[in-house]
Amino acid sequence: MEFLEFNPGSYLLEIWNTYMEERTRLSKIESANGKLAVENPSFLKDISFKIIMVEK
After folding, report:
1. What pLDDT digit, counting tens, does each position of 12-36 carry?
2. Measuring CA to CA, how many Å separate 38 from each of 30, 32?
3. Structurally, how many domains does the chain consist of?
4. What's the rounded mean pLDDT across residues 26-53?
5. Which residues contact 29 (CB under 8 A, 6 or more apart)?
6. For residue 51, what are the CA distances in angstroms to 15, 34?
7. The domain containing residue 10 runs over which residues?
8. Rg, C-alpha atoms of the chain
């Protein structure tokens, strides 16, 4: 899965299962060519992403 139009830098990524009300992943990822590449979680319903820039 890719998210587009991100500035170069490091981002903190949280993936939440909103049905279970729990965070399933927390990781630091890098933007490459304006994109953030994220491995799909094991579930694809009731999902939420939180992305925060931590470094330019």
Report:
1. 999 999 999 999 999 999 998 999 9
2. 10, 12
3. 1
4. 91
5. 10, 11, 13, 36, 37, 38
6. 9, 14
7. 2-55
8. 12
pLDDT of residue 41: 83
Q: Which region, left, alpha or beta, applies to residue 4 given φ > 0 means left and ψ of -120 to 50 means alpha?
A: beta
**Assigned token pair, 20:** 């279970």
Q: How many Cα neighbours within 13 Å face the side chain of 45? A: 2
Res 44: pLDDT: 78
Three-state secondary-structure class, residue 22: strand
Say if CB 13 and CB 56 are below 8 A apart.
Answer: no
Q: How confident is the model at residue 56 (pLDDT cuts 50, 70, 90)?
A: confident
